[in-house]
Design brief:
five-stranded parallel sheet
């Protein structure tokens, strides 16, 4: 299974929350969107334990097996299509989460998250570690998503 970590998934993984480690260990691909990395650094720098949290993140990334996903033209086009689709559905989500969704979709992966609003994103497969059965979507990763003009 290909997995992309949302910010709350990284935090849960570091805290050792039940269920998440099994999912991460079973993945044959782990991705991290640059936006998630930015959210983590911002949170660490605002918090009381910046040096420790940043070092833990750097150690996690240095272990290998994690790919920092790209954010290029393909992801930008997907982002634009998602903004339009979610606006038409009347279900907007936060901007950073739109970028996370676009990166995940472009990597043909599942998104490991506990944020329910990701379930509104067309074609995205969010999976949680707390109530996994209720978090999955019907479309398998790799389902084509067409840009509508």
């Amino acid at each position: 299974m290909r997995l992309v970590l949302d910010t709350n998934a990284y935090v849960a993984l570091r805290r050792g929350e039940e269920g998440i480690l099994d999912l991460v260990e079973s993945a044959d691909f782990l991705g991290l969107p640059p936006v998630v990395l930015g959210e983590l650094y911002a949170g660490f720098l605002i918090g009381d334990r910046a040096s420790r949290n940043i070092q833990e993140l750097e150690d996690f990334l240095a272990e290998g097996g994690i790919e920092i996903l790209g954010m290029g033209r393909r992801e930008a086009e997907r982002y634009g299509a998602l903004v339009k689709a979610l606006r038409e559905l009347g279900k907007p989500i936060p901007t950073n989460d739109l970028w996370i969704a676009a990166c995940t979709l472009c990597s043909d992966s599942w998104l490991l998250t506990e944020d329910a609003h990701f379930r509104s994103v067309p074609g995205l497969l969010p999976i949680g570690w707390r109530n996994m059965g209720s978090k999955t979507m019907a479309n398998p990763p790799g389902t084509p998503y067409t840009l509508h003009s």
